[in-house]
Amino acid sequence: MTEALPPVYEESSQYRHWRFSPSQLWDTRKASHEAAVERVRRNFQEDQKESQAATPDDLEYLSIDDELALCRFYEELLQTICKHLRFPEVVMATAVIYMKRFFLYNTVMDYHPKDILLTCLFLATKSESERISIEEFGQKLKLPSTDSILGLEFVVSQGLKFEYLIHHPYRPAYGFFLDLQTIPDVDLRLLKETHSKVQQIIGSMFLTDLCLIYQPSQLALAAFVIAGKSNGFDQHVTRYIELRLGNEQKDKVLPLIDAIANTLDQLESVSPDKAKAIDRQLRLCMNPAKNPDSALYKKQKREDEERRKRKAEDDDDDDDDEDTTPGQ
């Protein structure tokens, strides 16, 4: 007898590598943040020796909450940019999730979100087959140069582990919309009204950690329940869950939906004033190894150039040796 194949989603890199429990997310961020602070602190000390300038002993580094708030501010900005440029929702969703994945293992003290944002968006247009050249991309965003976008492509791709495919809640949400029409005594007017709100709710989900914790189908179903609370359609969705999954599974799914709804209830926009305050602090603790004006950066650049020069000279020597080697 042929063994049943697992669902496509369970075969994906998203399911295998990018799903976490809330505690796993916290532990990952904590470990990444502690390593980043230690690395930046060492670089400040080395920069101080190189420049012979004093570095404050009480330099305050960004906290995990500061980094998350700054990233969320730019995630919201990214959503606004996508609406302005009329990119499909899947492009926006992919770009936001790319940002989340990147900063799960990287720090804003190394890479500013405003720079990573643009590279994530450009990568998302390619992943979601939204055909646009880098020249047109730069023109639409009125950028003076696209060099930094292209320069960060490999860095961002490394942060994504070169795993670009994203499964979104949009497709299962549309599937639920179609399937809900088949249940007995469903109010089609309320269903359409509820579905019109689902897209906005899914958009809000991307500003939280929900997409790193739950499966797309769970988020889509939760979006219907949440959207249906304003017009009573949530009762139809609960009945639908019971009909399709049975009472036992319903008792497991409804608490998940409640947890998702609670997370969305706690979501708050990051004000421009708060983002500016965090950004001011970030300027003081930005990794000097990433700052072109720092003495450490200039030293590393000189060392890189010297290494390249030595390698080129060694390659030339090897070529000369081959030219003078007698034939066999």
Give an account of the 3D structure.
This protein is mainly α and 328 residues long. It contains 15 helices and no strands. 30% of the residues are buried. The mean pLDDT is 89.
Write a concise keyword list for the protein shown above.
328 residues; mainly alpha; 70% helix; 0% strand; elongated
Order of helices and strands: HHHHHHHHHHHHHHH
Which percent range fits the helix content? 55-70%
Rg (CA only): 25 Å
- Average pLDDT confidence is 89
**Tally of individual helices:** 15
End-to-end Cα distance: 63 Å
- In this structure, how is the largest beta sheet organized? none
Q: Return residue spans where pLDDT drops below 50 for at least 5 consecutive residues.
A: none
What is the gist of this entry?
This protein is mostly helical. Helix content is 70%, strand content 0%.
Per-chain topology:
Elements: H1 13-17, H2 22-51, H3 64-84, H4 89-105, H5 113-127, H6 134-140, H7 147-151, H8 153-159, H9 170-180, H10 188-205, H11 210-213, H12 216-228, H13 234-265, H14 272-285, H15 295-324
Helix pairs in contact: 2-15, 3-4, 3-5, 3-14, 4-5, 9-10, 9-12, 10-12, 12-13
